[in-house]
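[09:14] KT: can someone run the structure on this one? pasting the chain below
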Amino acid sequence: MNSLYFGAFLTGISGFILLARNQFTWKSDLLWAVAWVANCLVSAVLTWCLTGDLSGLLSPAVASLLFGLLVRTFVPLMTSFGAGLLSCKFYLPIAGMILVHKSVDTSNWPTMALIGYYALQSLFLASAVIGTLFNGCSLLAEFCFRYPKRDNAIKTIVARDGNKNPKVSIHVPCYAEPPELLIATLNAISRLRYANFEVLVIDNNTKDPGLWKPVAAHCKKLGERFRFFHVDPLSGAKAGAVNFALHNAAPDAEIIAVIDADYIADSDFLERFIPLFNDPKTGFVQTSHDYREWIDNPFLSGTYYEYMPVHKLGQPALSEYDAGYTVGTMCLVRRKALEMAGGWAEWALTEDSELAVRIHALGYTGHVFTDTAGRGLIPETMDGVKKQQFRWTAGPVQQFLVHWRLYLGLGGNGRLSFAQKVLEIRHSFDRLPVAIAFVMGVPMLLYCLYAILNRLTIPVPHGVMAVIAAAVYATYLEKWIAVKRLGCRRIRDFVLSVMMQEALRWTYLRAFIVPFFRMNLAWHRTDKFSKSRNFLRVLDSSRAETSIALIHFAIAALLVPFAHFRQFDYVALVLIGMFVQGIGFLCTLIMTVISERALRVTGVHSGPIPVPVAEEAESVAYESSAS
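[09:31] RB: done, structure tokens below
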């Protein structure tokens, strides 16, 4: 068990090094290499002081060191700090694997059992390698990678070749939106510092004329380059709307921009990023998702810091390997690439990220920036957030089920690099660990039942407890550093972001599993009408998670008479695990209550929203030809 103590110390001290890296701007490779070597030495000394023995450390330590050296050698973008960090993170899984191997006597096993055992060990090793590498691509990407592609793109942006101003067709899809909200979006677009653009507003299937006619009138007021289309019927949801816009865009438009109905674009959005399309290989440019009107709302603050790390930290790192993707708003797409790819996928819940797969397969590159060029609105209710997250999680799984041949290099529908294939698969299976963690509860409970029925006391080694404590500490420390990098200054907002992550666990689990059994899923829009308080929504929005939480609490209560806490045993460990899981699922109820308390009694939107114009204009209606 000495290797586990060493791993726990290694993980704990890594946290302090991370804090130092976050606090200071030192970029010396030598300095951080020394820091990681010192971490190993100090961890070894602490392990010796605690146990008086260092046996069992050599093999996993050498494996971890070798892993770090290979990463630094074969991943050119990896920094020395990142290689050291991932080497330390690799230690625990490899130490666990070696510990299990040493404790299992396979001398009398039949051949098929041995094959199965080594297959499982190989699978675990592959998972450890891939999981550790992916860890560097997420919250800690800023510390682990260099960004030469981004830096070159910034130089192009700064240079700004003013002689090239291709025509941009801006598409604003909408369905049953508050007119004042959409009018604010259009007003912001009208203020763009770029002369050569048109705007197509596609209202699809809105039945209430009181919602779309004020917008049609306002488009007429804004001038001839604003065109409004009320299309009913039109299939394909948002993808159907932007495909309709693509077919009706001006023939000379070279760039397609998509802006969601609630997004207020910065005036330099086009002026700033269009120069990147001077490179004929540029297929798309994506700026970061970002939001407004959330700072003073505790529910929206927690949601904001749960949403943003993937866009501000993870996506730019993926972009260095041309595996970043569009997110369907504040994005620019080369029209030729979009048409060659076949347009937007109307079968996909995430038609935006799916498009990036096909554009990359055509050989185009994409740029994804951490920069904010516009801000939208976060759903005000837990139900709205859950619907949004279900779509964003299930969509990439749909992409895998459709494009798996492309990811494996089969068929003739384009080519992706090895890094693109691996990272696209990772994108699709991003929530797999959530599913595994939930499913693993079943065999753990069965083994617990076996121990109880046979009156077995299975002590949990102190080294295992140390590792669990270190892993929890490292997980939340990394989350804290990530939200700090995003501007979080209040502990409250950090705690709420953790609670929101837990509150969405059941949504992530369902969204990951459902597409494997039902590919054709309904596309649910994000409702942008302001809500008034309604506490009857609380139970409706959190019924499933609250039920699961109560089941976990009940199991924990049933295990109390059989658990040994003085001589800490396996039943006590499972009991604590069930209780903690229950608290996690209960966060859905808590966050739903917080969301309702944060709503205004009147349900009136805050912020400057223009009054809809009174005059009406004739709308243009088309029969949808989208399938």
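[09:33] KT: thanks! The first strand starts at residue 168 and ends at 174.
[09:34] RB: yep, looked fine to me
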